[in-house]
Specification:
Chain A is α/β, with parallel strands linked by helices. Chain A has one domain: Rossmann fold (3-Layer(aba) Sandwich). Helices cover 32% and strands 23% of the residues of chain A. Chain A is built from 10 helices and 12 strands. Chain A has a 6-stranded mixed beta sheet with strand order 6-7-8-3-9-10, with helices on both faces. In chain A, helix 1 packs antiparallel against helix 5 (145-157), helix 4 (125-131) packs parallel to helix 6 (173-186) and helix 6 (173-186) packs parallel to helix 7 (203-219). Chain B is an all-alpha fold. Chain B has helices at 9-12, 27-49, 57-64, 67-70, 73-81, 90-123, 136-150, 158-177, 184-206, 212-223, 231-250, 252-258, 262-267, 272-294, 300-312, 316-340, 349-367. In chain B, helix 2 packs antiparallel against helix 6 (90-123) and helix 6 (90-123) packs across helix 16 (316-340). Classes of the chains: A alpha/beta, B mainly alpha. At the A-B interface, helix 3, strand 6 and helix 4 of A face helix 12 and helix 13 of B.
């Protein structure tokens, strides 16, 4: 799939350049995304889930957020994605605060793939992907040639050309995910945020999703931030990794720097071995560390088995 | 919903060369529209052919297509703007001045209710929503009873009062549901709360009615009736309906995006709260306009969007257009039953729509595996 993906990427790149004219975007340079001193909390909770963390996504690179269940990685992503209003701090895209921007303008810069997506069952994949063009269209405007090109490019890049006419309700979980990724790609943003895009997928579809992200990184200038459950997968995919626990960033850096036996013990509460191979570090978890007394809050986390592994 | 429908052949041959209205030619939609038009035509002809003033079918149909009326500008001026009626034959007068306006009102009310229901189903993402789910009917019902029983002096403005009451109740529901924004579930719950309180007050007011005539009039209004509708009602409802229906067609794409869920809609750059309120406003306008001329006709707004979705799929551009035709078909058809079934006694049309709508829902419930979320 990645091998014959040159063409759609070029279409995508041309599309981006075309869109740049109206986007006050300075050409093809990758965008940077910064979350500064973010304090994030849900309306129902008393205490902030994330309390004053700063995250800088390197332009044009893939940044992976990892951490155990309840570590706040999805919350942090939700804050970056402007889906959760920060109590304090700000999210900047290319130096501009997203709260000061028009919602559609934000959506032209910042694409988000949520963990759970719903749609009417009888919508076709193609129609779904066309919804990705929403931020590029005015209220009364109709589909343009640029929209067609972006949709074709996105569908091809996500490798769901064969699903184009299928109804979303009839697809498998993995196929659905590809369709939703195609929608986010059609949005044609400079920054893409993905919340656990590989969770619940079979191996084949996990690899397909990872290949799409690699293609995005290698052949276009999209800045990607992705939450991943599987630390080995994250290490293989990402240029930068950020490890969270209890809403705090515990480590950041290249996969080689972040994925260590100490980190496994401290953040994931697992004893394991790490072997450095050509394809990045290989993690062999050996046993769960019971109760090393580090953080009593962890007891709240009632689902101890990470579903992805 | 998709179990028994083959993938639409129209979509495989979708024109990609920017033909803006290609989706209108979807064969399922065309069939639906043509079928509905046939029902409206037949039911309308039945409606104008029978009644207290007896004439033969030939006479009645001759009157319907009477060129002296159909092509007469003065006649249309009289109908639509309230000018003086031109000279016309007795049959034409009965058909055009007494029986036809009722059919027209039924058509307009059917469109309004169906579209309103379709929008509310998208806004609440619930297949069981109706135009009256956010308190419109209970607000209108309460003000109708208040007018008839307490403020008799306002009776002349009853249609207006009813429509305003419905709109105000909707705003109350929205205010109750608002807490840093709304959600479909909170809106529906607030609608239930306001509906319960207002309906209790409305029922209480029946005890203060001292006259059986007032009670009957109140029942006619609260179950929905087209008895005695005239060109004046057409003139009253038409402008509001045109505005509401045009906005509804324009808003169809927003409905489609709302159906992808709040998070997705937001990440696509939609201001979800604003859009939701604006769409609800359009739907309330349509519902209030229909209440002003026909009272609270139930089931049309609930059933028609269902029927249409089963016929044309879930794309709201097609659903809204389908509703514009299927709504009138149900409404005109039901009104034939309301007016002629127990002739000379007329029953409120809302009773007939309920009798038709209930069994249809039963059928849907048996046929479909899951109901509720769209």
């Amino acid at each position: 799939m990645a091998s014959d993906a040159d063409d759609p990427v070029r279409t995508n790149g041309a599309e981006r350049a075309a869109a740049g004219a109206c986007d006050d975007d300075d050409g093809t340079d990758a965008s940077d995304l910064t979350g500064e001193d973010l304090v994030l909390q849900y309306p129902a909770t008393e205490e902030p889930v994330v309390d004053g963390e700063t995250l800088v996504a390197e332009p044009g690179a893939v940044t992976a957020l990892v951490g155990p269940n309840g570590s706040g990685k999805s919350t942090l992503l939700g804050g970056l994605a402007d889906q959760l209003d920060p109590d304090d701090g700000s999210v900047l895209v290319d130096g501009r605060d997203v709260h000061a921007m028009d919602t559609k303008e934000v959506a032209r810069k910042l694409g988000v793939l949520s963990q759970e997506s719903t749609s009417p069952d009888s919508i076709t994949v193609e129609d779904l992907v066309y919804h990705g063009r929403y931020p590029h269209r005015g209220f009364f405007e109709h589909v343009t040639e640029a929209d067609h090109r972006a949709v074709d490019g996105a569908i091809e890049m996500a490798g769901c050309d064969h699903l184009r006419e299928r109804e979303v309700g009839s697809l498998s979980g993995g196929q659905k995910q590809l369709a939703w990724i195609a929608m986010a790609l059609a949005q044609d943003t400079d920054v893409l945020l993905l919340d656990e895009p590989t969770t619940f997928l079979d191996l084949h579809h996990q690899l397909e999703v990872m290949e799409i992200i690699e293609t995005l990184r290698d052949e276009s200038d999209v800045t990607v931030v992705v939450v991943l459950h599987d630390i080995e997968q994250a290490a293989r995919l990402a240029d930068r990794m950020v490890a969270l626990k209890n809403g705090e960033i515990r480590a950041r850096g290249s996969p080689g720097e972040v994925v260590t036996e100490e980190l496994l013990a401290e953040v994931f509460r697992v004893d394991g071995e790490i072997e450095h191979t050509e394809r990045g570090p290989r993690v062999t978890p050996l046993r769960a560390r019971d109760d090393d007394g580090e953080t009593p809050e962890d007891a709240e986390d009632a689902s101890p088995s990470p579903e992805a592994e | 919903m998709s179990s028994d429908r083959p993938p639409g052949p129209a979509q495989t041959t979708r024109a990609r060369n920017g033909r803006r209205f290609a989706w209108l030619l979807d064969p399922r939609l065309v069939t639906t529209v043509v079928g509905s038009l046939a029902v409206v035509l037949v039911a309308g002809l039945v409606q104008v052919s029978f009644g207290a003033y007896s004439m033969t079918l030939g006479q009645a149909w001759g009157a319907v297509f009477d060129p002296d009326v159909v092509l007469n500008r003065q006649a249309w001026n009289a109908f639509l703007l309230g000018g003086d009626l031109p000279e016309m034959s007795r049959e034409s007068l009965v058909v055009w001045n007494i029986r036809m306006p009722r059919v027209f009102v039924a058509i307009i009310v059917g469109m309004n209710l169906a579209v309103s229901g379709a929008i509310f189903q998208a806004v609440t993402r619930n297949e069981l929503a109706s135009p009256f789910i956010l308190g419109v009917s209970s607000g209108a019902g309460l003000t109708i009873l208040l007018t008839l029983v307490v403020f008799g002096g306002l009776a002349a403005f009853l249609p207006l009062v009813a429509a305003v009451g419905g709109a105000v109740a909707f705003l109350v529901v929205y205010a109750i549901a608002w807490k840093n924004g709304t959600s479909p579930v909170r809106l529906v719950l607030a609608g239930v709360i306001v509906g319960t309180v207002f309906s209790s007050l409305q029922t209480a007011l029946f005890f203060f009615a001292d006259d059986i005539g007032v009670v009957q009039s109140a029942i006619a209004w609260t179950t929905g009736s087209l008895t005695g509708t005239d060109w004046e009602q057409v003139r009253m409802v038409l402008p509001w309906s045109v505005v509401a229906l045009l906005l509804a067609v324009a808003g169809a794409r927003q409905c489609n995006v709302l159906l992808l869920g709040e998070q997705t809609a937001k990440s696509l750059g939609m201001s979800v709260e604003k859009t939701r309120f604006a769409l609800s406003g359009v739907a309330v306008l349509a519902a209030a306009a229909s209440i002003a001329v026909a009272g609270i006709v139930g089931f049309v707004g609930l059933v028609v969007p269902h029927v249409v979705r089963n016929l044309v799929g879930s794309d709201y551009k097609r659903v809204i257009v389908g509703c514009l035709f299927v709504g009138p078909a149900l409404m005109v058809g039901a009104d034939v039953g309301a007016r002629l079934a127990l002739s000379p006694v007329q029953v409120p049309v809302g009773i007939v729509t309920g009798l038709v709508g209930g069994p249809y829902f039963l059928y849907l419930m048996r046929k479909q595996h899951s109901m509720g979320e769209i």
